[in-house]
Specification:
Blueprint (H helix, E strand, L loop, with lengths): L1 H35 L9 H23 L4 H22 L3 H14 L7 E4 L2 E8 L3 E5 L5 E5 H6 L3 E2 L5 E10 L4 H14 L3 E10 L3 E10 L5 H18 L41 H4 L1 H30 L4 H30 L1
Antiparallel strand pairs: 1-2, 1-5, 2-3, 3-4, 6-8, 7-8
Length: 354
């Protein structure tokens, strides 16, 4: 009876704490939900803003709970001081990687050397960017797997970015000195054209003891089929040379497997079939880089949406002080932009829901 009476008397003191904890729980849940839904004020920078916002809200929530505790002022101040010391210690111990990666992420964002959907290569890592965060960057490799690279690693190593306007696709091949350079160059140029490359050219990159190393290159405008284009260039180079009677094998093979000099190491003419046009079947890149494709589409839609909204705001400002005819024209343009904005928002929602 005495215990129940003491609990009943003490309960009013805990009401502020209970109310505070309920508000904190609801606030954290709503903030997490709102950030996941990519609200308009966050936009494409969600991966950067979300951890910072959640960290700040959590710190404020802890302070609010401590203040709401039914303790005297001196104890509350001591707890707040202890919390400050703990947070300072955590930040101090983890600052080497935590802060460094965060600063690297902000630096990558400000420099803007690459964006979602771009092909990048860092050391042995190659793939398309499928996500950019405050502390890491995610790429989707040629195996469709996801690789997470710390942002500090990206600014500490050279990053090769494939330009969205197009890139040069190359293939190296070694041939014997018995093959004429002028003939080889013409055949390799023909192979590059068959592979769908523009303005092909050939370089001699090395004169070895037994072989001449050639590099055939061409311009690829559609970088989304980069992986396929590299493979097609190698296949077409091999088939074109074989069809012309030029074997693609170093004469040094005689040191390992002696064969008669008149024997050609290549398929018989007619055994190989021409490659099918790219339009006849879906590209493997569509499945390999599916997440990167989605990330690129979302970022592009967000950018277009922001541009349309900014343009609408500028037209709205011009309405004040404009004449009747000009005002009608501006209103019509605003209506058109409203339609475009609604279409972009719907497309963005569909991409986010997939």
């Amino acid at each position: 009876m005495v215990v129940a009476l003491n609990l009943g008397e003490a309960f009013p003191q805990y009401i502020p704490l209970i109310v505070t904890m309920v508000i904190v729980a609801v606030g954290l849940t709503f903030a997490d939900w709102a950030l996941k839904k990519r609200s308009q004020w966050v936009g494409s920078r969600q991966n950067f803003v979300r951890p910072l916002v959640m960290l700040g809200i959590t710190a404020v929530a802890l302070i609010a709970i401590i203040i709401a505790l039914p303790l005297n002022e001196g104890t509350t101040n001591q707890l707040l001081g202890l919390l400050g010391l703990v947070l300072t210690g955590i930040i101090g111990l983890s600052s080497t990687t935590f802060v460094s990666n965060a600063m690297a992420g902000l630096m990558l964002r400000s420099v803007g050397s690459f964006r979602s959907g771009d092909f990048i290569k860092v050391d042995a890592h190659f793939g398309r960017v499928s996500g950019r965060g405050l502390f890491h960057t995610e790429i989707q490799t040629e195996d469709r797997d996801l690789t997470t690279l710390p942002n500090l690693y990206l600014i500490s190593n050279p990053v090769k970015v494939v330009r969205s306007s197009g890139t040069i696709v190359s293939a190296n091949i070694s041939l014997g000195y018995d093959a004429s350079e002028s003939r080889v160059e013409g055949l390799l140029v023909e192979a590059a054209k068959k592979a769908g490359l523009e303005d092909p050219f050939v370089h001699v990159v090395d004169l070895g003891d037994y072989t001449v190393s050639y590099r055939v290159s061409g311009f690829l405008a559609d970088i989304k089929r980069l992986v396929t284009a590299r493979s097609r260039l190698r296949i077409e180079s091999m088939n074109t040379l074989h069809a012309a009677g030029i074997e693609v094998m170093s004469p040094a093979v005689m040191m390992q497997r002696p064969i008669p000099s008149e024997t050609r190491i290549m398929p018989e003419h007619g055994e190989t079939s021409p490659l099918q046009p790219l339009t006849d079947k879906p590209l493997p890149e569509e499945r390999i880089f599916d997440k990167a494709e989605k990330a690129e589409a979302i970022e592009r839609l967000e950018k277009e949406l922001k541009e349309q909204e900014n343009g609408k705001a500028e037209l709205a400002k011009q309405l004040d002080g404009s004449g009747e005819e000009e005002k009608v024209e501006l209103q019509n343009r605003i209506k058109e932009m409203d339609t475009q904005i609604e279409r972009l928002r719907k497309s963005l929602e569909e991409e986010l829901e997939q």
